[in-house]
Amino acid sequence: MKRKFGLLPRVVLAIVLGIACGFFLPGWVSRAALTFNALFGQFLEFIIPLLIFGLVAPGIADLGRGAGRLLALTAALAYGFTLISGFGTFLAGRALFPTLLAGAEAALPEAGEALSPYFTIAIPPVMGVMSALVLAFVLGLGMAYTRSVTLKAALDDFKRIIEHTISGVILPLLPVYIFGIFLSITQSGQVAGVLGVFVKLIVVIFVLTVALLLFQFSVAGIAARRNPLKMLRTMLAAYVTALGTQSSAATIPVTLERTQRLGVRPELASFVIPLCATIHLSGSMMKITACALAVSMIAGLDIPASTFAGFILLLGVTMVAAPGVPGGAIMAALGLLESMLGFDETLCGLMIATYIAMDSFGTATNVTGDGAVAVIVDAIDRKRRRAAQK
């Protein structure tokens, strides 16, 4: 059977090769790699507004067209947990990172230290990121309200084009892009600092994911009057499966079976779990928030808390429409990182590498939390049904 070489091992290999080759590659090879990075970075800047528009607009229309009490409740819980994850991670990061990342400001190459590309080509985007997001909201809500068929079909086709661009062009080339970033960092002498930041981030995020799952299942335990630790133990099979698949969608059969073992009605679990595989991204939110905060600190960016709060609120909506492929959430977030937090190509590249390196943990957290959402929805719906029968 042919084994697939996934995105995570390719990214890890790109990081290792970038570091190793940075010690001996001649300057002309390094400049060629940096030229590719410059061109690919320009392409990313061009495609990001289209990506946001193409994913968010149909996603909002789909949610609106299927609107119902259970859908609204599930979406509210998923978005609420995602925001709690984002703001909780931000507060924890503000408390921990200044100490953990002390002296890490030297981990990024200064302007002028690294080699420059042979040439660059400017590819201006057709619209700004915020313009794309607002247009997506307007059209998405409009299609949901008017139940437009023609426009919805056209945007569904555009969404498929964007998804194929991500899976067929961007994700396959990402390891080459990350190779060039770490090649540049190694040749400028800061690779040890960057790897140190990576290790600290992975440890912090793993601890935070455990805390998030304990919180989610504590809320579920209160709603259903059940032991949260026993429920969490029941969901461990879904967690472990997601570590291997790195895909919420691919883990749905296991998540569904485990959720039914928690006592959730099969018909409700069959509705909530596939929906949460798309809209519940608290683990992904945690990774992106922690990585963005850490990278901004080591880059010396002074980002006000109010700006970060707006970033988290918009990120929660944007990620709902992220494609269900490894690294899809971070690709959907790049536009907000650039437009709201002021990240450049190097910082976005580090974000991508860090995110994908921890993709398994985030996906496993998303999937396991889906069970908690289903338990809460089931408990609330049971109470509503009992009240209606009286």
Give the strand content.
under 5%
Radius of gyration: 21 Å
CATH uppermost class? Mainly Alpha
The CATH architecture category equals Orthogonal Bundle
Distance between the termini: 58 Å
Count of extended strands: 0
Mean pLDDT: 79
Largest sheet: none
Low-confidence stretches: none
Total helical elements: 15
Q: Compute the number of structural domains.
A: 1
Q: What structural class is derived from the secondary structure elements?
A: mainly alpha
- What is the name of the CATH topology? Proton glutamate symport protein
Helix content: over 70%
- What's the SSE pattern? HHHHHHHHHHHHHHH
Using the alpha-carbon principal axes, give the shape. Answer: globular
Task: Tell me about this structure.
The protein starts with 6 loop residues before the first helix and ends with a helix. The chain contains 15 helices and no strands. It is globular. The longest helix has 39 residues, at 27-65. It has 390 residues and is mainly α.
Provide key terms for this protein.
390 residues, mainly alpha, 15 helices, globular
In short:
The protein has helices spanning 7-21, 27-65, 69-100, 129-146, 150-187, 191-224, 228-234, 236-245, 252-261, 266-279, 282-298, 305-318, 328-341, 345-357, 359-389. The protein is mainly α.
List the helices and strands and how they pair.
Elements: H1 7-21, H2 27-65, H3 69-100, H4 129-146, H5 150-187, H6 191-224, H7 228-234, H8 236-245, H9 252-261, H10 266-279, H11 282-298, H12 305-318, H13 328-341, H14 345-357, H15 359-389
